[in-house]
Amino acid sequence: MRIALLAHARQPIAPPFRGGMEAHSWHLAHGLQARGHEVVLFASGDSDPGFTLDPVLPEHQEKTFPGQEHTGNPALIAHLDAGYGAACDRIAAGGFDVLHNNSLSRLPLAPERTARIPTVTSLHVPPYDALRWFVHASASPAHRITVTSRSQRQAWFPEGPRPGVSVLHNGIDPTRWPYRDRGDGSAVWCGRITPYKGTHLAIHAARRAGLALTLFGSTEDTAYWENEVRPLLGGAIRYGGHLDGPALAVEVGRASVFLFTPCWDEPFGLVAIEAMACGLPVASFDLGAAREVIGEAGAFAPPGDSDALADAIGAALAIPRRTAHDRVRRHFTHDVWLDACERLYAEVIASAKDRGSA
What we know:
This is Glycosyltransferase. It contains 14 helices and 13 strands. The two termini are 24 Å apart. 41% of the residues lie in helices and 17% in strands. The longest helix is centred in the C-terminal third of the chain and has 24 residues, at 334-357. It has helices at residues 20-34, 61-64, 74-92, 111-114, 129-136, 150-156, 199-209, 222-229, 245-253, 270-278, 290-294, 306-317, 321-331, 334-357, and strands spanning 2-7, 38-44, 52-57, 98-102, 119-123, 143-147, 165-167, 187-190, 213-216, 237-239, 257-260, 282-285, 298-301.
């Protein structure tokens, strides 16, 4: 198949990844290419040059408009609309069999656009007003929508499941996150360092549990880092930097428990399954899709309660490492995910052809 992959342009689609959406698009492009498909990645121009790249924007959004996400800045909105609108036009004229839309733009959802090319849209965020209406109005035979978890589907479609909407769990390549049969007794946390990821709460919980903790990730919110996270560092609490995949896998794998601390309705939690693949059980806030994803590989605490999370750390440490690894192997591998993507592409292409011949 000739596949257009439209990514969001807030950050480059390149390692080391700033977050799950970047990792999702990179691994999707890489995996589809490895299966023999022709993939063109529509993303920021400073994304991974190893792909066939058609830039949506010359450089990623945060470089041109730093810190302006969700501010309603008219200049940013116009900048993004111009980039995505032109990209959608090139996709429609590009002879593609299917578009996989991983952007946060409303423009690829327009029925007049999905009528021109079979489209699969993957939603990676909770519903918000700037996109919700366009998602709900986009249903058509030539458009499929995926969510990453059942809890995310409930958030987007509280009235119940709708035709053309399915759960597509994220997947990882377990060979990139090698299993280790024992840890060193420490805890680890990974992700974008922002308030809604709860970095400071992981620190409080680790301290109360008496465990060393290493943090990894990009310091996306500078004020939060300087005011609420950095002052808590020292002693057994350290920051290990923002590492690429292989280096991060080594660091994660040496720990004994992973702390997952979402302070929002996390739609999936890619970092949790990466740690689970290495063999780490998870102590997590029970929010969003956490319980659905982590299952028997974790122990849970009420959202925002760092004292209860400290207790959950003790319970998680009693879970065998093989339990966490086996859960990833059963449900969240790269191959399971790519198989599902290929089925969706075939279904939406067939639906579009049936509509065209009707």
